[in-house]
Amino acid sequence: MAIWAIADLHLSHDQEKPMDIFGPLWENHAAKIAANWRRVVGEEDLVIVAGDISWAMQLSGALADLDWLAALPGRKLLLRGNHDYWWSTITKVRAALPPGMAALQNDHYVYEGWAICGSRGWICPGEEGFDSEHDEKIYRRELVRLELSLESARRAGHERIIAALHYPPFNRQASPSGFTELLERYGVSYCVYGHIHDEGREKLFQGRRGGVNYIFVAADGVGFTPVPVVPAT
């Protein structure tokens, strides 16, 4: 049983939202995801889906995308992204999820001795366009949410922790941030993140730093294939 991660599925089964307007790489991207997913993920595996799951604006409009995702192998753990406008209250989201699917918000999820924590995150100070008034407020709020999630795992006695964020936990220069400080303080082993689609994604930091292994998992940056986080045991 293994743990995988992927972000930025950008599904739109209930509406017309062709992704190939963002480039030929995105042509028939849902079919690519499904084929690659079935090739690598086992039925007992867990896949962390780190945000930007559906283009739907309302929860009812996201149901077709959630059903499509549920039909793929493995259990799925969902995290909200900046484009998941359909994600209303966590209570309503969880009530609507198909079997074998869970949602993460201010808490943690346990799989095979691993506690998975996370939050949406936000752009970090030092990133181009960071607004010290608007962005700082959201950034601080997301730090609180991440710490709530991590603290819930600590209180439950978990020592092996994976963190999932939609946004990178640092700026393009990989400068330390409030997110990286939390990940290190709580002894997180792996942190997966997505969100970035421009050409600069090749320069995003990946690898081990401060005891944390950082893994970029945005779908178009990883060949529309779930990325292994913890190999099969």
Account of the protein in words:
The protein has 233 residues and is an alpha/beta fold. The protein has a single domain (3-230), classed as 4-Layer Sandwich (Purple Acid Phosphatase, chain A, domain 2), CATH 3.60.21. The chain is 26% helix and 20% strand. The longest helix is centred in the middle third of the chain and has 22 residues, at 134-155. It is globular. The termini are close together. The relative contact order is 0.19.
In short:
With 233 residues, this protein is of the alpha/beta class.
Order of secondary-structure elements: EHEHEHEEEHEHEEEE
- In CATH's first tier, which class applies? Alpha Beta
For the residues shown, what is the average pLDDT?
Answer: 94
What count of structural domains? 1
Count of helix runs: 5
| Portion in strands | 15-25%
Q: Give me the CATH architecture, please.
A: 4-Layer Sandwich
**Main sheet: strand order:** 5-6-7-8-10-9
Shape: globular
Radius of gyration, taken over Cα atoms and rounded to an integer in Å: 16 Å
In the CATH scheme, what's the topology name? Purple Acid Phosphatase, chain A, domain 2
The percent of residues in helical segments reads 25-40%
Unreliable stretches, pLDDT < 50, 5 or more residues?
none
β-strand number: 11
Task: Summarize the biggest pleated sheet.
Answer: 6 strands, mixed
